[in-house]
Amino acid sequence: MLLSKIIAMRSKKIFRLCCMVSLVLSLAACNKLDLDNYNSVTFDNFWKSEADALVGLSGVFDAYQSQGLAGKNYRMFDLLTDNAYPNNLPEWLEIGTSNHNSSNTVIAEFWANYYNVVSRANTVIYQVGAMPESAIKEEARKRIIAEAAFLRAYAYLDLISLFGDIPFYTEPVDPLGEGKGKTPKAEIEAYMINDLKNNVIPYLPATVPPAEQGRITSWAAVALLGKYYLFKQNWADAASVLKEIIDSKAYSLYPDYSTLFTPAGEYSSENLFEIGFIESGLDGGEGFSFQVDTNLAPIIPNSAWRPSDALANSYPAIDGLPISGPNKSPLYKGRSPYENRDLRLRASLYTNADVSPDGRKYWNFNNGNNKHAVRKYSWYTSVQYRNNQGPQNYYMIRYADVLLMYAEAKNEASGPDDSVYDALFAVRKRAGILPGEQNNYGLDLNMTREAMRDAIRDERRWEFALEHQRYFDLKRWGILDSIIANLDPNQRSFVFTSPRDYLWPYPQNEMDNNPKLKAEGQNPYW
């Protein structure tokens, strides 16, 4: 119960203890502690009990709660794809137009925040591992270390996806020591895969009781292992471990996609890993959700960024067929473009057809100048959360992701067998796609591997729109350059410099403060 309270509730006695210094970031990595006399806290009188270890672990979760990660910016990766565009976010626009460099603040902040997670996790792993048996039971020790290692592995997967070869730290950083140079991406992947298999999964429980909501399960770690294999294109191993989750029946799709991304969907049967938030006036909730108050004058939700017309037009009709082209659905009517559509469209995007429960317009359509706005992670309420105080959990790994990762891996490994179709059928059924006479939910039952690959990629776009997935997907598929090149220039002007932009540059402040990395040089083409 202690950890879940610390992770989500942020009680009135929370104080900051700057207990780790990361040379990589030149920043203090601070844990949050529920202590009466925080001025007396030192390494000498901390790490003395399981409660201390749990508080230390909460600091790793707290690093993910940062506004620079799950607290706000993490879901904005879609701004660099064909799904959305920045309306008033110049640093994101720099990246989208290929005008960014090593001084871009978005890039620097993601680097700093990810390494903050790594630094805190390494400290927990080391300090809890060094605690005497009299202070903590062995089962609790191994579990806490495994959870910290899981969070570290998630951060490293994102880091190598964004930057490629990076400094690799598996131990606490000496604040007076030198930073490290580059470690090849493949070595980091191999280390993390081994760590997940041998030091994480075996020591985590398959389920957690309600009092421990938010803690990591072994199935979440299996899903992350599957994601590592998938990103390495180790298709057979990815399919094998992800199938274990499906066969376990430990998770299922939340029945209502439209309410999944509201407080009603938190800690549901679909969520393997989520970062918890509650409303707090002390130290911030999240800043990515939006509450629509129908009693107020209509405004544009999340006006700093907008979903693209291309995303809206990509969703199929409820028979699973597209709304344009030679195979156009007979159910689609241009005068009512949002009727008879995949329900994920209107669950993810506000449209000019949306009205409040009492029949009023509740967002500012601006006479048609704004066709769509971000709807996912919003709900109707007269309670408004301001200044990053929102209470909504952010979903990092969902069961829908497990199903579609499995389908992708299995299809690439051996082609589209029944299990691949079953995974897509489940996701499409929840999206309101009709089964049809052949019970195939609009899918051709005789697809080639190539055709199924395209179908899975489309499904991932619709299922995870306006979350954080598409940018990472397009990069690992190696098609981000072609996607950007084919954007409608009338909708937005984006540029992708290939192959340079497949990796971000190392932040300039990191190059300046890390002589070893500076000596080895910037990422290729930068």
Short overview:
The chain has 526 residues and is mainly alpha-helical. Helices cover 40% and strands 8% of the residues.
Our estimate of the beta-strand percent is 5-15%
State the secondary-structure class.
mainly alpha
Q: Which residues form runs of ≥5 with pLDDT under 50?
A: 4-41
Number of strands: 10
Biggest β-sheet strands, sense, barrel: 2 strands, antiparallel
The percentage helix is 40-55%
Side by side, the strands of the main sheet go 1-2
Query: What characteristic shape results from the CA principal axes?
Result: globular
Order of helices and strands: HEEHEHHHHHHHEEEHHEEEEHHHHHHH
Radius of gyration equals 23 Å
Q: Give the overall average pLDDT.
A: 88
Q: Helical region count? A: 18
Distance between the termini: 48 Å
Describe this protein's structure:
It is a single chain. With 526 residues, this protein is mainly alpha-helical. It is 40% helix and 8% strand. The chain has 18 helices and ten strands. Strand 1 and strand 2 form a beta hairpin. The radius of gyration is 23 Å and the shape is globular. The N and C termini lie far apart (48 Å).
Distinctive features:
40% helix, globular, two-stranded antiparallel sheet, mainly alpha, single chain, 526 residues, 18 helices, two-stranded antiparallel ribbon
